[in-house]
Specification:
With 377 residues, the protein is an alpha+beta fold. It is 28% helix and 21% strand. It contains nine helices and 14 strands.
Length: 377
């Protein structure tokens, strides 16, 4: 019985490792329960199936018998990091001053009053309910819709994208097991969770759980096990933000429960652009767009169990849109938020929505933007 349970745990780890090494964003993946482990990754392109055979591991250690567990997971590719991330810049039009003062004749579309950096015909003719909105054309680097983009706001669980970036920048062993401790369950706010003290998963599985299900204790455990500890991790988050030119951004915790985690929509565009363009962050793309996953959790105190989790984004769960990166967020101070990268008509774009007063308003704004993007030429 113990062998069968540990076999389920090993197969789950292999599925996660397969996602880590895949070359494109995953929209869905499943793992069977037989000795022949089949990981199916469904993308916008035809499905790709990778089969990995796994030996049954030895049961976990008990009080009377010492056993060892040998895992031989897939090799994680080595990536090289730049010493200094590239500053993100946007295309800025150049104006030539007239020889003498003139009074220009201006035709202003009130919907587009907040827009800049793109010709009027290329802007999105929409209105939004979210407090701050930014839509970036990744091909041209132009902001094609903007609303209060420089206002500094609490960003809730959008924070977790930066948490994942710092973990990947550190080059940590994603196969290493991490165990939830009681302090991981305590945050700046009371938040529901399906995790318990003693729950044990690999670093890659907790990263998947954090990005897909937005589990706050997973984010805290990942930060706690960073070299130098939790405080060093928070410093690394702020250093990373500064290196990306996110000068209106500040982090106080790794999950987003702390309302002092703040940024502007403009800053979050820079973060999302880095995730979209840097190959080292492919895991964020894969994990944040997984619609669901069954985590087999080992807990030597309360017993092992399966945790069935779904993505917090209804757009990802529905599968009706081509989304490459996604993260939702909500606390009272932040309102309802979402950031995503999407491809419409083979054109990539970044969407940032902050401070919606209701979840439905957030998704209405997102779907209106996606629909308008589909009509762009």
């Amino acid at each position: 019985m113990k062998n069968a349970k540990l076999m389920k745990r090993a197969s789950a780890q292999i599925a996660v490792l397969a996602l880590m090494t895949s070359g494109a964003s995953a929209n869905a993946f499943t793992v069977d329960s037989s000795n022949q482990r089949t990981v199916t990754v469904t993308r916008a392109t035809p499905a790709v199936t990778t089969t990995v055979t796994r030996a049954v591991p030895t049961p976990p250690p008990s009080n009377t018998v010492k056993t060892t567990k040998t895992l031989t997971p897939a090799t994680v590719p080595t990536v090289s990091y730049r010493s200094q991330p590239t500053q993100t810049t946007y295309n800025t039009p150049t104006y030539t001053a007239p020889a003498a003062p003139v009074t220009p004749v201006t035709t202003m579309n009130t919907v587009n009053a907040n827009h800049y950096n793109a010709p009027v015909f290329d802007q999105l003719a929409i209105s939004t309910n979210s407090s701050a909105v930014a839509v970036l054309d990744l091909q041209s680097g132009d902001l094609i819709y903007s609303k209060n983009i420089d206002a500094t706001r609490s960003i809730a669980s959008v924070t977790k994208v930066m948490t994942a970036m710092v973990i990947l920048d550190a080059g940590l062993d994603m196969r290493e097991d991490i165990t939830i401790i009681p302090s991981d369950l305590v945050g700046a706010k009371k938040a529901s969770t399906n995790l318990r003290a003693g729950d044990r998963l690999s670093r890659s599985e907790f990263t998947l759980m954090m990005l897909m299900k937005s589990e706050n204790p997973a984010a805290k455990a990942l930060a706690r096990t960073y070299p130098g500890g939790y405080d060093a991790f928070i410093r690394a988050m702020n250093d990373k933000a500064a290196s990306l030119g996110m000068y209106q951004t500040s982090f106080s915790d790794s999950s987003g429960l702390d309302p002092r985690n703040v940024a502007s929509a403009n800053d979050l565009v820079k973060m999302m652009r880095a995730v979209s363009e840097e190959g080292r962050y492919q895991l964020i793309r894969n994990f944040s767009t997984a619609p669901s996953y069954d985590f087999y959790i080992t807990n030597f105190n309360s017993g092992n169990r399966t945790y069935k989790a779904n993505n917090t984004s209804r757009l990802v769960r529905s599968g009706g849109h081509s989304i490459g990166v996604s993260k939702t967020g909500f606390i009272r101070e932040a309102g309802y938020c979402v950031v995503m990268e999407t491809h419409v008509n083979n054109k990539p774009a970044v969407i940032v929505l902050l401070g919606a007063n209701a979840s439905q308003s957030r998704w209405n704004d997102a779907e209106n933007i996606l629909t308008e993007l589909a009509y762009r030429r």
